[in-house]
Amino acid sequence: MPAMLPCRAMSEAFEREVREFIARERPPRPEFKLPQTFLEVESKEQFDYLRAWQAKVYDAGYLGFDVPEAYGGRGIQPDKKRIVERELARARAPFFVNTIALTWVAPTILTYGTEAQKQRLLRPLLRADEIWCQGFSEPGAGSDLASLTTRAEATSDGWSVTGHKVWTTLAHFAKWMILLARTDPTAHKYAGLSYFLFPMDAPGVSVQPLIKMTGEGGFNQVVFDSAPMPQDALLGELGQGWAIAMTTLMFERGAAEGSSSERAAPFFEQLARLVELARRTGRSEDPVFRDRIAQLWLEAQALAFATPRAEAAALNAERPLALPLMNKLVGSEWNQRLAELACELLGPEAGLWLGEPSAPDGGEWPRAYMNSFGMTIGGGTSEILRNILGERVLGLPKSK
Ligand SMILES: Cc1cc2nc3c(=O)[nH]c(=O)nc-3n(C[C@H](O)[C@H](O)[C@H](O)COP(=O)(O)OP(=O)(O)OC[C@H]3O[C@@H](n4cnc5c(N)ncnc54)[C@H](O)[C@@H]3O)c2cc1C
What we know:
Strands 1-4-5-8 form a 4-stranded mixed beta sheet. The chain is an alpha+beta fold and 400 residues long. It contains 13 helices and 8 strands. It is globular and about 70 Å long. Helix 3 runs parallel beside helix 7 and helix 11 (322-346) runs antiparallel to helix 13. Flavin-adenine dinucleotide (FAD) binds next to strand 1 and helix 13. Flavin-adenine dinucleotide (FAD) binds at residues 39, 133-137, 142-143, 167-169, 219, 374, 377-378, 380-381, 383-384, 387, 399.
């Protein structure tokens, strides 16, 4: 047998080490109900459980492979990051509660932040010591984000914020918010926006929970009444907010759905559960259901191929927008069709809700179906993503 290449041997050793760590340290399933994603963390006990897990993974050295060591990260090591993500997915380990911070705040701060901002903010974010939320959407500004009206007015020692944000995931636990606000009402709507790192414990901030159609919480509305913000809360240049927000959204959409083979692992795992459900409900021989399951499998396979595609510069360089947008669009709709199919397999039993003792799989399928609608809305709706792909990737005429 040929000798193993040193880097292959190293990565296999690292993989083994991570697998052992997860098997040894992952917290036991709690008595209370765990949320399906970071979008539904509602109670303090759910939050504490998930936060402790993230801190443990960080302390063990398995989080922060996108962040230089000087800021509390583990240095830029994409190979190790991939291995950890794959092993966590494989083990169905709990998710990281500070996902917004890890996957879209940190890279935005690394791109635009001052040295002091990077030094102050990155380490506690990685360890989930400080939780982040995203204050972009407003009651009158969702898809048309640039029409937002929350104002940040300059004061003698910083800024004063007045306005109203909505659908703010995790605001009830957050120490910080990435806040997009209007700093120049006379400028063109895109040019008048600035991007801030807002401390949520400022006076004049009120966080009110919003209940989803699953009956669960997780997101909020946030009202600012002359809330003060220090000078150094500004990220990047004054008036540069739109460009920075677009950078954040690219990270958000890239992270949201299946943009890597590691993230595709849960797709296959979900499919396996669906096949098991089809068998249990006696429908696995039904050609219509078989066809629909096969179709989902083919699409999951295509999503899994997105990583090698993203890494091949020749395929990706000309249209860097295409892959994250496409993966977010296809992945979120895929999830919705899978959960819908599961509910069809269950028939009337899909009406049995969480907590109902006779509910199949604890009522997880109807919950997943309802939650799936949020995934096709948050981070850009499917309609908006189709518009962007059509116009900016395929070069079609602009929609009216
Ligand atoms: C689970 C979840 C979590 C979220 N978390 C956050 C968060 O943490 N922070 C945050 O800032 N926001 C968050 N959001 C808000 C999210 O970004 C917005 O809901 C989204 O951008 C859509 O905006 P809207 O709800 O105002 O809908 P609207 O923009 O009013 O859209 C309504 C409908 O019209 C369609 N539409 C609008 N414009 C067009 C067009 N030009 N062409 C075709 N169709 C169009 C849309 O696709 C949609 O179907 C979250 C949303 C969800 C569901």
